[in-house]
């Protein structure tokens, strides 16, 4: 009955736009407050009842009401809250992924200012996971955030990833990636890989039976970014591709290419689809 009451509060304030019943932001929050439920629960109830919370009005044309509800019901773990991770978190929070587990044992440094979304001159030295959680809540208060200011290792991966429907790879070493991927294989969680260097970047969805690109070529622990650097424009580009893959998986909007790595070169404006064995 609680959720039905919340829906009626939101329905009463709704307006019709292009055939869609849109519930205003404040009505959604008021329904949650009056009915004693979370904002996330109120938004899910609205979507299940055929109402679209106004903040997702521009998203449902892509994922649909059902897909948006699935996003709010899902959980994504983001391993790394720096260059790739910050942009991934921003997109997932705005998309309405219901719970974000944000993992990073590092703090912001001066050399992060050129590319990391949440690095500012004022928060140098602050733990990245905590800054990311605060930003995600400011962007979308319906999203539940869990900041884990730790480095991933074989001893903590399973506990941290518990409950996640997808794990986002925003790590900066192949050793950490391997640890996270091995855990995801054992737990049956899709692993959305991403890496950047210079003008280039790559992304791939890896599942239990897939071989990672760094496993195929025997890559060193750190990539070419140690020499080529990381320009400000490449992390958001690759992060967007990773976030798109995750959103499709979570919303079940459409199939994501399997056993395929997408490789991008923004200097030459080139893209390649590489099959992974």
Please tell me about this protein's structure.
- With 277 residues, the protein is α/β, with parallel strands linked by helices.
- Helix content is 43%, strand content 20%.
- It contains eleven helices and eleven strands.
- The chain has helices at residues 2-13, 25-35, 39-48, 60-73, 83-95, 128-139, 157-161, 174-187, 213-217, 225-228, 234-251; strands at residues 15-17, 20-23, 51-53, 75-79, 99-103, 144-148, 166-169, 191-197, 200-206, 260-265, 270-275.
- The strands form two sheets. Strands 6-5-4-7-8-9-10-11 form an eight-stranded mixed β-sheet, sandwiched between helices. A three-stranded mixed β-sheet has the order 1-2-3.
- The protein is globular and about 60 Å long.
- The N and C termini lie far apart (51 Å).
Write the layout of secondary structure elements.
Elements: H1 2-13, E1 15-17, E2 20-23, H2 25-35, H3 39-48, E3 51-53, H4 60-73, E4 75-79, H5 83-95, E5 99-103, H6 128-139, E6 144-148, H7 157-161, E7 166-169, H8 174-187, E8 191-197, E9 200-206, H9 213-217, H10 225-228, H11 234-251, E10 260-265, E11 270-275
Parallel strand pairs: 2-3, 4-5, 4-7, 5-6, 7-8
Antiparallel strand pairs: 1-2, 8-9, 9-10, 10-11
Helix pairs in contact: 1-2, 1-3, 2-3, 3-4, 4-11, 5-6, 5-11
Count of alpha and pi helical runs: 11
Instruction: Count all strands and give the number.
Output: 11
Poorly predicted sequence stretches spanning 5 or more consecutive residues: none
Placed side by side, the strands forming the largest sheet appear as: 6-5-4-7-8-9-10-11
Radius of gyration, taken over Cα atoms and rounded to an integer in Å: 19 Å
